[in-house]
Amino acid sequence: MRPRFLLGALVIGVPLALALLGPLLAGEPGPRGASFTLGGGHWLGTDFVGRDVLHQVLLGGRSVVVVALGATALAYGLALPVGLAAALTHRPWLEELLMRPLDVLLAVPSLLMILLVAAALPPGPAGLTLLVALANIPDAARIIRAGAAEAASRPAVEALRLQGETWWRTAVGYVGRSLTRTLAADAGVRLTGALYLVATAAFLGIGVAPDAADWAVMVDRNRTGLLVQPWAVVTPALLIVALTLGTNLLVDAGLKARKRT
Known about the structure:
This protein has helices at residues 3-26, 53-88, 92-106, 110-120, 125-152, 155-162, 167-178, 180-203, 215-222, 231-260. By secondary structure, it is mainly alpha-helical. The longest helix has 36 residues, at 53-88.
């Protein structure tokens, strides 16, 4: 196994394990103590309302990870057919119809879009997943279309058409398969961006309760006590950074391994 893959697995393994298994290990919350204190039976101290920081860390990762992964998967699930259809169609009007609305969305900053929609309809976790996916669809569709257009111009695609192959076989069997490396590289960046948006939205109180057990919320609510009790901010912040860093290390290692083969 390559060193970069091992390093990526190690970096991302800790936050993923805490996100997935933390709620099972957290148990019942203990009695609250004074705000922003160290010791007193609290390994990582207490937060802004006296809750045990370790207990909050164990509970706070699942929402961040699930929403980010769900938003990334949903974005690709919607962008992939749009991008492939736009690249493979011989009808310019259809390509314009598919891509121009996405250009309008692309002109709106992602966080501003989330804030505008949330102002009208405050979303829960499911709504936040949809909003983050919506913010990622325009970029993903344009990347897919650009890569698919290059693959669609190859003689092999024309040969498939002349043989009477179905659109599905051409789009997925050949063009889609040729985009694997591009999509893998983009997926790491896309997931990092989704984590950033989810964390920022939670930091602003969008999609989660102000006192929810959430890593991003912990960073926001506890920042006033950073100099007094730094672990309440540093621990969840480091876990979010480890998720993004580990994701990109794993994607890079996977692309390099695929290139060697």
